[in-house]
Amino acid sequence: MRYLALGDSYTIGESVPDVGDWPNQLVDSLSLRLPDTHFIPAHIIATTGWTTANLSNAMDAQQIDTSTFDLVSLLIGVNNQYQGLPLDAYEVEFQALLERAVDLANGRDDRVFVVSIPDYGYTPFGQGNRSTISMELAQFNAACSTLTVQAGIAHYDITGISQQWNPIWVAPDGLHPSGAQYTAWVASFAEAVEAQLLD
Length: 199
Fold this sequence. Notes:
Layout: E1 3-7, H1 9-12, H2 22-33, E2 43-46, H3 52-61, E3 71-74, H4 78-82, H5 87-104, E4 112-115, H6 130-150, E5 154-156, H7 159-162, H8 179-198
Parallel strand pairs: 1-2, 1-3, 3-4, 4-5
Helix pairs in contact: 2-8, 5-6
């Protein structure tokens, strides 16, 4: 079972040990749920600071579109917001990324899922500007959800989890989620992803 995770710092697990990133925690969870299925470690295309355009360009550079995967995820957009880039540009670029994700899943939209953007306004880094960050991210997340649902693709909302302040849920950098928070994310959608694989 080959799984491709597309994204940014949240997908690579910035400031978290390799085994703590959520895509590989998901692989571990699915391996337990589907013991007769062999999962290889997640193939991750993600770098801290990437916007939708950066991710698309990196996919081009890696010529990833020549491959196919059994499962593809997409979590992107926080850096569009952080850099003050326009929402309408995000919508166009995100929709294109969704289409590429389906192609990478061999045309199976039922094997693609999107994870919502976490709210870094609830971290020590963002708390001084929480209201603005949360308001802007809500707009990006609304667009993300609408486009994903319109495309018939699964959308898993972890934003509420990211807004539950817990000291052990923040990485040492004071900005990114810890492995423990990623565990909570995976717990919230692993059963649904399992169902996608069983279709």
